[in-house]
Predict the 3D structure of the following.
Amino acid sequence: MIVDMPGSRDFRTAQAFNLLQVDASGKDIGRRVYWKLYAIENVVRVLIHSVLCAQIDPSWWASAVDQTLQNKAQGFRRKYTSRPWHTSPGIHDIYYIDLFDLNEIIRANSHLFLLVVPDIDQWMAKIEQIRLPRNVVAHMNWPSETDRKRIDVLYEDVLALVKTLSGTLSFLIP
Protein backbone atom coordinates (compact mmCIF):
# COMPACT_ATOMS: atom_id res chain seq x y z
CA MET A 1 0.00 0.00 0.00
CA ILE A 2 1.37 3.43 -0.98
CA VAL A 3 0.74 6.14 1.59
CA ASP A 4 0.84 9.80 0.58
CA MET A 5 3.29 11.45 2.95
CA PRO A 6 1.88 14.56 4.66
CA GLY A 7 3.17 17.69 3.01
CA SER A 8 4.28 15.88 -0.11
CA ARG A 9 1.73 17.70 -2.25
CA ASP A 10 -0.40 20.81 -2.36
CA PHE A 11 -3.53 20.26 -0.25
CA ARG A 12 -5.58 21.99 -2.96
CA THR A 13 -5.03 19.02 -5.28
CA ALA A 14 -6.68 16.56 -2.87
CA GLN A 15 -10.10 15.11 -3.63
CA ALA A 16 -11.53 16.16 -0.28
CA PHE A 17 -10.74 18.79 2.31
CA ASN A 18 -8.53 17.57 5.13
CA LEU A 19 -7.28 19.99 7.77
CA LEU A 20 -4.26 17.80 8.49
CA GLN A 21 -3.24 18.05 4.83
CA VAL A 22 -3.51 21.87 5.04
CA ASP A 23 -1.22 21.81 8.08
CA ALA A 24 1.20 19.42 6.38
CA SER A 25 1.30 21.61 3.26
CA GLY A 26 2.09 24.70 5.34
CA LYS A 27 4.81 22.90 7.26
CA ASP A 28 6.32 21.62 4.03
CA ILE A 29 6.42 25.10 2.46
CA GLY A 30 7.89 26.56 5.65
CA ARG A 31 10.51 23.82 5.96
CA ARG A 32 11.53 23.72 2.30
CA VAL A 33 10.97 27.21 0.88
CA TYR A 34 9.94 30.05 3.18
CA TRP A 35 13.09 30.16 5.28
CA LYS A 36 15.24 30.44 2.15
CA LEU A 37 13.19 33.39 0.90
CA TYR A 38 13.49 34.98 4.33
CA ALA A 39 17.27 34.58 4.21
CA ILE A 40 17.57 35.83 0.62
CA GLU A 41 15.45 38.93 1.16
CA ASN A 42 17.16 39.90 4.40
CA VAL A 43 20.67 39.29 3.05
CA VAL A 44 19.78 41.55 0.10
CA ARG A 45 18.70 44.22 2.62
CA VAL A 46 21.99 43.87 4.51
CA LEU A 47 23.98 43.91 1.26
CA ILE A 48 22.25 47.07 0.02
CA HIS A 49 22.75 48.80 3.35
CA SER A 50 26.39 47.73 3.62
CA VAL A 51 27.33 48.77 0.08
CA LEU A 52 25.52 52.10 0.23
CA CYS A 53 26.91 52.92 3.70
CA ALA A 54 30.40 52.31 2.32
CA GLN A 55 29.84 54.12 -1.00
CA ILE A 56 27.71 57.05 0.23
CA ASP A 57 27.35 57.23 4.03
CA PRO A 58 25.15 55.75 6.78
CA SER A 59 22.30 58.10 5.86
CA TRP A 60 22.24 56.83 2.25
CA TRP A 61 18.47 56.30 2.20
CA ALA A 62 17.65 59.98 1.64
CA SER A 63 19.98 60.39 -1.34
CA ALA A 64 19.97 56.92 -2.92
CA VAL A 65 16.27 56.04 -2.88
CA ASP A 66 13.63 57.46 -5.19
CA GLN A 67 11.14 59.75 -3.41
CA THR A 68 8.20 57.56 -4.45
CA LEU A 69 9.80 54.57 -2.76
CA GLN A 70 10.67 56.65 0.30
CA ASN A 71 7.01 57.69 0.50
CA LYS A 72 5.89 54.06 0.19
CA ALA A 73 8.14 53.04 3.08
CA GLN A 74 6.94 55.97 5.16
CA GLY A 75 3.32 55.01 4.46
CA PHE A 76 3.93 51.49 5.75
CA ARG A 77 5.85 52.88 8.73
CA ARG A 78 2.88 55.13 9.62
CA LYS A 79 0.54 52.12 9.54
CA TYR A 80 2.73 50.30 12.04
CA THR A 81 3.22 53.38 14.20
CA SER A 82 -0.55 53.88 14.40
CA ARG A 83 -0.92 50.30 15.67
CA PRO A 84 1.90 49.95 18.23
CA TRP A 85 0.50 46.65 19.52
CA HIS A 86 1.75 45.02 16.30
CA THR A 87 5.37 44.07 15.71
CA SER A 88 7.32 46.60 13.67
CA PRO A 89 9.22 45.25 10.63
CA GLY A 90 12.40 47.04 11.71
CA ILE A 91 14.05 50.34 12.50
CA HIS A 92 15.38 51.26 9.06
CA ASP A 93 13.04 52.15 6.19
CA ILE A 94 14.53 49.31 4.13
CA TYR A 95 12.41 46.89 6.20
CA TYR A 96 9.21 48.54 4.97
CA ILE A 97 9.66 47.65 1.29
CA ASP A 98 9.54 44.40 -0.66
CA LEU A 99 11.88 42.45 -2.91
CA PHE A 100 10.91 44.34 -6.08
CA ASP A 101 11.70 47.64 -4.35
CA LEU A 102 15.03 46.32 -3.10
CA ASN A 103 15.93 45.43 -6.66
CA GLU A 104 14.96 48.95 -7.75
CA ILE A 105 17.37 50.43 -5.20
CA ILE A 106 20.12 48.24 -6.61
CA ARG A 107 19.19 49.22 -10.17
CA ALA A 108 19.19 52.95 -9.37
CA ASN A 109 22.58 52.67 -7.68
CA SER A 110 24.13 49.94 -9.81
CA HIS A 111 27.18 52.11 -10.51
CA LEU A 112 27.97 51.94 -6.78
CA PHE A 113 27.28 48.20 -6.52
CA LEU A 114 29.54 47.48 -9.53
CA LEU A 115 32.50 48.51 -7.39
CA VAL A 116 31.74 45.65 -4.99
CA VAL A 117 29.68 43.17 -7.07
CA PRO A 118 31.01 43.27 -10.66
CA ASP A 119 28.16 41.10 -12.00
CA ILE A 120 25.42 43.22 -10.39
CA ASP A 121 23.26 43.07 -13.54
CA GLN A 122 23.15 39.28 -13.26
CA TRP A 123 22.20 39.59 -9.59
CA MET A 124 19.32 41.91 -10.42
CA ALA A 125 18.11 39.37 -12.99
CA LYS A 126 18.36 36.54 -10.44
CA ILE A 127 16.36 38.52 -7.90
CA GLU A 128 13.74 39.32 -10.51
CA GLN A 129 13.40 35.60 -11.33
CA ILE A 130 12.24 34.81 -7.80
CA ARG A 131 10.05 37.85 -7.27
CA LEU A 132 6.83 36.13 -8.40
CA PRO A 133 7.61 32.79 -6.70
CA ARG A 134 8.36 34.79 -3.53
CA ASN A 135 4.93 36.40 -3.77
CA VAL A 136 3.30 33.01 -4.28
CA VAL A 137 4.85 31.75 -1.04
CA ALA A 138 4.26 35.03 0.84
CA HIS A 139 0.57 34.81 -0.04
CA MET A 140 0.41 31.27 1.33
CA ASN A 141 0.35 29.41 -1.94
CA TRP A 142 2.29 26.48 -3.33
CA PRO A 143 5.27 27.18 -5.66
CA SER A 144 5.95 24.90 -8.61
CA GLU A 145 8.94 22.59 -8.54
CA THR A 146 10.67 24.90 -11.05
CA ASP A 147 10.13 27.87 -8.77
CA ARG A 148 11.41 25.92 -5.77
CA LYS A 149 14.57 25.14 -7.72
CA ARG A 150 14.97 28.82 -8.65
CA ILE A 151 14.73 29.72 -4.96
CA ASP A 152 17.19 26.96 -4.01
CA VAL A 153 19.72 28.13 -6.61
CA LEU A 154 19.46 31.79 -5.59
CA TYR A 155 19.82 30.85 -1.93
CA GLU A 156 23.05 28.97 -2.70
CA ASP A 157 24.26 31.85 -4.87
CA VAL A 158 23.57 34.35 -2.06
CA LEU A 159 25.59 32.21 0.36
CA ALA A 160 28.47 32.15 -2.11
CA LEU A 161 28.27 35.92 -2.64
CA VAL A 162 28.40 36.61 1.09
CA LYS A 163 31.39 34.30 1.43
CA THR A 164 33.14 36.04 -1.48
CA LEU A 165 32.45 39.53 -0.14
CA SER A 166 33.27 38.76 3.49
CA GLY A 167 36.90 39.69 3.04
CA THR A 168 36.22 43.02 1.32
CA LEU A 169 32.90 44.32 2.66
CA SER A 170 31.84 45.03 6.22
CA PHE A 171 28.30 43.69 6.51
CA LEU A 172 26.14 46.11 8.48
CA ILE A 173 22.64 45.30 9.68
CA PRO A 174 20.30 48.21 8.92
About this structure: Residues 1-7 have pLDDT under 50 and may be disordered. Residues 25 and 172 are 35 Å apart (CA to CA). Residues 19-55 form the longest helix (37 residues).
